[in-house]
Amino acid sequence: MTAAPVTVRVPAKVNVQLAVGGLRPDGFHDLANVFLAVGLYDEITATPSDRLRITVSGPDAHQVPLDESNLAARAALALAARHGVEPRVHLHIAKDIPVAGGMAGGSADGAGALLACDTLWETGATRDELLAICAELGSDVPFSLVGGAALGRGRGELLEPLETGGVLHWVFAVADGGLSTPAVYRECDRLREAAGTGSSAADVPEPAPSGDLLRALRTGDPGALAAVLANDLQPAAVSLRPSLTETLRAGSEGGALAALVSGSGPTCAFLAKDPEAAEGVAEALLRSATCRAVRVTSGPVPGATVLR
Ligand SMILES: C[C@](O)(CO)[C@H](O)COP(=O)(O)OP(=O)(O)OC[C@H]1O[C@@H](n2ccc(N)nc2=O)[C@H](O)[C@@H]1O
Ligand SMILES: Nc1ncnc2c1ncn2[C@@H]1O[C@H](COP(=O)(O)OP(=O)(O)OP(=O)(O)O)[C@@H](O)[C@H]1O
């Protein structure tokens, strides 16, 4: 055990393709989930303490649970149980990723706490063991650990790294209030039932990654990528939050190459040609007053990283 605090930085994600299969008997959906890590970060600092304690700072801190339902706490408990360590740690989360925004903020904290505790306790868990614990914590958590770009299969936890060429410039419109991920998946099923196509795994075609999209990521051509960005959860997020239509329109009119809901939403993501175009999209979104905050960033960026 080291006595010095350990700080880990973990990025948010955007899904450049989210193909959703039918509802499985276990309540999850099979996915073809193309993740991209982007430069909005939470920082998790682990310090020795007399007991497990969570504190959170940042503008959305009041929305984050401080009990054992916090994904950072669950990560510490899972690692401690496996290695026979007492989970005596103070985890401080400096939160910059929007809460319940479809950008995997809680997942970032789970992956970050796991890496921070592994380093603090000198547990020496293997990468595969860390990934297995991440998958138990949530479908998005393994990607928060690895970052970069990756294809997630199964419920999103089975990752295959993807090659990317060049930097992609993004603008994110943060909404007032979050959306619950299970509620958005339920709405997706409801819309499929209402359309008469059915929502079970037998009714919905197996989700598959788009070859054009993987090629566009490889070349890093934002124009080619913009043409094929796709999120099967977008109609459900818009159905639950119709005002997102105005946000998506404002960013498109502001010069974005493409606009889509990030994961389960309600954050909206806009792909821009270059940094100047991204600033133009951000200004248009701010003028439109269709969102609570605007963030300009880029990706891919590395996953959870120990800063010390
Ligand atoms: C929307 C995405 O963010 C896209 O990356 C993820 O699929 C959500 O991942 P997550 O927040 O880590 O979700 P989990 O904590 O694993 O699951 C929360 C709930 O979301 C639904 N869920 C999640 C993942 C999945 N492949 N199918 C689902 O139906 C289930 O109702 C599940 O009970
Ligand atoms: N460390 C955490 N940070 C934020 N929320 C957390 C955390 N731990 C648990 N939660 C709970 O999880 C809910 C979803 O939060 P989160 O910010 O992860 O959503 P999200 O970004 O939409 O997730 P995803 O994109 O993975 O579907 C919150 O409303 C909160 O109750």
Task: Characterise this structure.
α1 runs parallel beside α2, α2 runs antiparallel to α3 and α9 packs across α10. 34% of the residues lie in helices and 28% in strands. The protein has ten helices and twelve strands. The protein has 308 residues and is of the alpha+beta class. The protein has two domains: 157 residues, Ribosomal Protein S5, domain 2; 132 residues, GHMP kinase, C-terminal domain (Alpha-Beta Plaits, 2-Layer Sandwich), CATH 3.30.70. It starts with 5 loop residues before the first strand and ends with a strand. Strands 1, 2, 3, 4, 5, 6, 8 and 12 form an eight-stranded mixed beta sheet that branches. It has a four-stranded antiparallel beta sheet with strand order 9-10-7-11. The radius of gyration is 19 Å and the shape is globular. It binds 4-diphosphocytidyl-2-C-methyl-D-erythritol and adenosine-5'-triphosphate.
